Hints:
381 residues, Alkaline Phosphatase, subunit A
Amino acid sequence: MVRERITLCFFVDALGWEAARRHRTFEALAPHAHRLRTILGYSCAAQPTILTGIPPSEHGHWAMFERSDRSSLAPLRVLRFVPPAIANHRRFRRRLFIWHRRRTGFTGYYNFYRVPFSLFDRFDICEKRDIYAPGAFRSGVESIFDILAREGVPYRRWTWTTELEQSFEELGRALESDDEMRLAFVYTAHVDALLHVEIGNEEVVAHEFARVERLITEAVERARMSYRQVDVLIFSDHGMIETAGSFDLQEFVSEIGFAHGSDYVAFYDSTMGRFWFSNERAREEISEALESLDCGTLLADDDLKSEGIYFEDRRFGETVYLMNPGVLVLPSYMGVTAPAGMHGFTPEHEDSYAVLMSNRPIDPPPTGIADVFDVMRKLVL
């Protein structure tokens, strides 16, 4: 039986505009390509923006860790006494993460990385619920999945919890057997993981891009055998920038002379430092010292507001220092070795731009990642 119509959404994490054009990825399958401005932050901010169509200041998600005096992580602070060789071991952290998810019931994406256990009573997980399921965001904020559920639109989804090959195998079977499905949504972090390691190896990157393109093309071809109309959307949240250097921001700030934990608290992400202060002297002197550096930029409130990442309660930082494109905070709470590529720099860098590709013209043309939400909603509804 031939069904009427289906929308296929393929969310390819870190597929940048420049990389997609350079490798001519998906040109034949989805010739209508649009360059999208991403937002300042990481995937934990960009993905919710795509799914809701609004900025972080409205949907509430920006960084993986936020300041909280009532943190779900507080009981784990006792682990600050564990020797660093054990406390920072990857296997130990992984087991602890699994235990924490079971204990809390959290379904969102997060990781403990190398965040010091001494800070676990000051920071909490932002994404506690699976953002690819209805009810993930605060009251009044609807994602595309909330709308699909409310409107009774049958859909299937595959996200980061499913391996790449398995997602497409299950999608293929659903396209043949699910008579009700009107939208299929597949998210993959495969390209993101690849580019963090192999961004400078064009041969490897081209091979893996072709692999993802083949899987998507095969899925579209199977859909066309079962549906009269197949709408295809391929999009991303950001690009990837090749690592050019690093700076020990932690050491620099500690040498200013204030006590971490009493005068100030800092969270060191891969590409930025976020600061909270207990007294004005610490705020003024640390801010002045940061402004003297040439490896990044101290963001003003106007910068945060223009990027849609300003929060009145400052739970993501009173002061934010953003590194220059390609320059990492190293060591950071995310790791002690530099990946080949990273994102989370200024959205204005040419390699930061995301992409939206379609098999049909899109009017009006999208310009930012938040526009993907409306494109999906209009196609399905």
